[in-house]
């Protein structure tokens, strides 16, 4: 695949001369995230391809438009994987979009987020200038961590052109147990106690009366974990379709996400008691709560007060409403200052993250 960075930079400079806003688009698999934004389309779809891969050093570099599936295929040939297991979205999910939205899979609390894996990035700012931050090894990552600042910025702080990531070996074995638990609060207490053990947990989700727990690692360690759970819980059973289950969670294709209702994502401390009424899915061992409910982001955010949590509207936005957790005025000023440094004319994805950004 060609390197389209020069074309992207030229388009940004041309848009700046015309005071034309730009809407950054890859494979359009995450169009429902964030707020609606308007502008001339700036496509990264063709800016794809693995630039370098060093299996012995556990490092891969790829252009932003590279599909997660393509990266997985390359890594799999050497028995490696992306630790964060970001969503593939039916083959349309790209590495640049995943970083821009900071998306990670069900194993995030145990294997790390996509943000954690970033070693370096090359971005093209609002002036059309190419800027490189970080490197390809941890010891080279010094100074201000601008690379990881791009995680979750949704393109507001520059167009991600290339990313270098650390990867990890694939586990030798994977197995999942399902434990019957009608009460999600009991599930939260149980899974937090379980996470305090040495069992190789890489997934924990409470789903409609069942607590699913995934174990990954050396074959003998996984077998021992499964045996221990089955012997200690008469209401537990091993399931053999675990790949499909965890992939449906990762790609948001689980039945829970098919609802036309608004779907909210709460990020809270894993031990936080479940207080929200309504249909919910409790992932990440309690740290990520999906809730189907009506309401505004301001009202939903009030439920996080005093619980050190954040909430955002994942799906079901209306017109131009804000969808991310409200931010205090001092933090708004800090974000605006960053925006003005990287995108002084506010050309890139205006309002995608917040109406004032």
TrEMBL record:
Domain FAD-binding PCMH-type, chain residue ranges per copy: 1-170
A GO molecular function held by the record: catalytic activity
Pfam families: FAD_binding_4
Top-rank taxon: Bacteria
Record's keyword terms, sorted: FAD, Flavoprotein
Gene3D superfamilies per record: 3.30.465.10
NCBIfam families referenced in this protein's UniProt entry, alphabetically: PRK11282.1
UniProt cross-references to PANTHER family, sorted A to Z: D-LACTATE DEHYDROGENASE, GLYCOLATE OXIDASE SUBUNIT GLCE
Name of this chain's protein: Glycolate oxidase subunit GlcE
């Amino acid at each position: 695949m060609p390197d389209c960075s020069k074309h992207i930079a030229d388009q940004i400079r041309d848009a700046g001369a015309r005071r034309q806003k730009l809407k950054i688009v890859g494979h359009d698999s995450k169009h429902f995230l964030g707020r609606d934004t308007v502008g001339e389309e700036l496509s990264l779809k063709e800016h794809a391809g693995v630039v370098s891969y060093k299996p012995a050093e556990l490092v891969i570099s790829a252009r932003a438009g590279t599909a997660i599936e393509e990266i997985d295929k390359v890594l799999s040939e050497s028995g490696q994987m992306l630790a964060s297991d970001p969503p593939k979205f039916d083959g349309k999910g790209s590495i640049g979009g995943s970083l821009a939205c900071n998306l990670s899979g069900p194993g995030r609390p145990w294997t790390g987020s996509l943000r954690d894996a970033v070693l370096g990035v090359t971005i093209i700012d609002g002036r059309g200038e190419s800027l490189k931050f970080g490197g390809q090894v941890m010891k080279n990552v010094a100074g201000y961590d601008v690379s990881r600042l791009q995680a979750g910025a949704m393109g507001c702080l520059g167009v991600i052109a290339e990313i270098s990531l650390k990867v990890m070996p694939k586990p030798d074995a994977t197995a999942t147990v399902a434990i019957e638990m009608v009460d999600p609060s009991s599930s939260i207490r149980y899974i937090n106690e379980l996470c305090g053990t040495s069992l190789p947990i890489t997934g924990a989700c409470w789903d409609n009366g069942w607590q699913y727990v995934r174990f990954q690692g050396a074959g003998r360690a996984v077998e021992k974990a499964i045996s221990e759970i089955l012997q200690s819980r008469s209401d537990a059973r091993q399931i053999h379709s675990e790949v499909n289950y965890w992939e449906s969670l990762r790609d948001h294709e689980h039945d829970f996400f098919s609802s036309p209702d608004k779907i909210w994502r709460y990020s809270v401390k894993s031990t936080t008691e479940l207080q929200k009424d309504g249909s919910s899915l409790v992932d990440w061992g309690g740290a990520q709560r999906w809730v189907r409910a009506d309401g505004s982001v301001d009202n939903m955010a009030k439920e996080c007060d005093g619980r050190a949590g954040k909430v955002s509207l994942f799906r079901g936005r209306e017109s131009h409403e804000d969808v991310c957790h409200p931010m205090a005025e001092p933090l708004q000023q800090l974000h605006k200052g960053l925006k003005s440094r990287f995108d002084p004319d506010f050309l890139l994805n205006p309002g995608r993250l917040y109406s004032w950004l």
